[in-house]
Amino acid sequence: MCGIIGILGKQDVAPLLLDGLKRLEYRGYDSAGVATVYQKHLGRLRAPGKLVHLEEKLAKTPLKGNVGIGHTRWATHGAPIERNAHPQMTDKVAVVHNGIIENFAELRDELIADGCVFESDTDTEVLAHLVTREIKGGLTPVEAMRVSLKRLRGAYAVALIFEGEEDLMIAARFGPPLAIGYGKGEMFVGSDAIALAPFTNRISYLEDGDWVVLTHNSATIYNSDDLVVERDISTSSGNEFLVSKSNHRHFMHKEMFEQPEVISHTLAHYLDLGNDKINENANPIDWKNVERLSFASCGTAYYSTLVARYWFEKLCGLIVENDVASEFRYREPPMTDKTLAMFVSQSGETADTLASLRYCRAKGVKTATVVNVLESTMGREADFVLPTLAGPEIGVASTKAFTCQLSALASVVLTAAKHRGTLDRAMETKLVRQLAELPRIITDVLKLDSDIEEICRDLMTVKNILYIGRGTSYPIALEGALKLKELSYIHAEGYAAGELKHGPIALIDETMPVIVVAPHDRWFDKTVSNLQEVAARGGRIILITDKEGANAAGINSLSTIVMPDVPEFIAPIVYAVPVQLIAYHTAVLLGTDVDQPRNLAKSVTVE
């Protein structure tokens, strides 16, 4: 995750901005920059690479000014070079931004037609030009910001400073987190409380759709309807920010809400989002010479490979095998030089998965690992490393790591299909655009949080739950059941919906909840037949579907979680979120230890 810091201070803020950015280094980045207002004029310094390069520039050419913004960037639109680093700037405004502006291309074309000259490849620059155009048209910075925000579609956290304004900063949030820090004659903005810990212990958090007008002595927060609102201010000791839950009760809850941001960074590694195509530089594998793909992983990571199997088979025409790593390593399967063995692991240290990788290497088979920790053993030993950019995950039950695994695998599938000649340019554009919409869509799904909590109140007294799904929803059903077991200690099983009548239907009665993962896709009608079988036996149905699916289900006695309409390709990534929320809220209601469930470890380094 990249990081934002903003300060309205009493002294030159550039050194303080740099200190705040250093506290955000754990989020990952590839360039950095700061901007200030001094004697009414904007100034800026940026540098690719690590913060030491920016620090060296600031030492040679200090930036003065007591209002400023800073940013560590993980490239989404545009290569990690200086002109694409943040802050992005015009003669009127400087802006830092986390997230993805989905409609940047149409906005850029509109602005270019109006005479705007773009200096970067970023989506962020469109916001700078939008605001600048409105200011030059006669609006105040506050009004210009209000109007410009209405034009954006996507997921974003932004902070802006303005030419001629030494007592003004405006920030906004839709998706990625943003915190406001309250000082005495000073105000602060940061991606999280960790960055703000040296400056203040009074923190509030913007909610989705909020935007805030800051001066040295005030913070006026507006909601998405432009109405003034109050947000709770919490007071904590600085030490509590070293590993911060922000305004969330548990790390798991925080990490679920980080998914829009971290998915955007994962996608940006593999895709050229600015041009709606894959990023060729992110592909280390010669897919033309792969005839068989062999997956081996454990737990949640294994379920990500089950989803990927549908993608690789349909889009690439590849033969795909999936194994639980603890079985694969002892099965000793025959391998050929046309096989690629791929291993998925959050930690890169999972003992059975690592042993499977070493087995394949000993057989002379090329290996690839999808991993969140590049410096891990698997990251070092695999022939090819495919990173997930989820950032640190404190909760033992995987959430954002899982959706980043899926996002990485979906992106890799597009690369493989293109190399194998099974993906034309039109389809590449279509699927890349679908993936680019994920941060915004998942932000919308997370707004169902309180609705899902209410549904979970009916699960507190049950002893057993079934999850079912078809197609790519089947692995999500498996993942949902695993999450519920891990967190709530309720026995749950996931099944392919078509298998229901081959045994599990014997368990159905009025005490048995059945959670059905069923977007309105090509499998939906068959899944509804299975719903009817459950309803006929008095089962308690919780249906996770979209509006069309809810209308078509034709069953009265069920609870429905109505999801956004999404294309089939990205549906499993989106539908992973409600099953996470079901597990979380059920566990919280039951009073279990959500972040550290009994008997479980984050990294399983033993057999």
Automatic annotation (TrEMBL):
InterPro entries associated with the record: GATase_2_dom, GFAT, GFAT_N, GlmS/AgaS_SIS, GlmS/FrlB_SIS, Ntn_hydrolases_N, SIS_dom, SIS_dom_sf
Cellular compartments per GO CC: cytosol
Boundaries of every SIS domain copy: 281-422, 455-597
Catalytic machinery residues: C2 (nucleophile), K602 (for fru-6p isomerization activity)
Principal EC category: transferase
Catalytic activity, reaction form: D-fructose 6-phosphate + L-glutamine = D-glucosamine 6-phosphate + L-glutamate
Intracellular or extracellular location(s): Cytoplasm
Protein function: Catalyzes the first step in hexosamine metabolism, converting fructose-6P into glucosamine-6P using glutamine as a nitrogen source.
Cited PANTHER family: GLUCOSAMINE--FRUCTOSE-6-PHOSPHATE AMINOTRANSFERASE, ISOMERIZING, GLUTAMINE--FRUCTOSE-6-PHOSPHATE TRANSAMINASE (ISOMERIZING)
Listed NCBIfam families: glmS, PRK00331.1
Protein name from the UniProt record: Glutamine--fructose-6-phosphate aminotransferase [isomerizing]
Highest classification ranks of the organism: Bacteria, Pseudomonadati, Pseudomonadota, Alphaproteobacteria, Hyphomicrobiales
Gene from which the chain derives: glmS
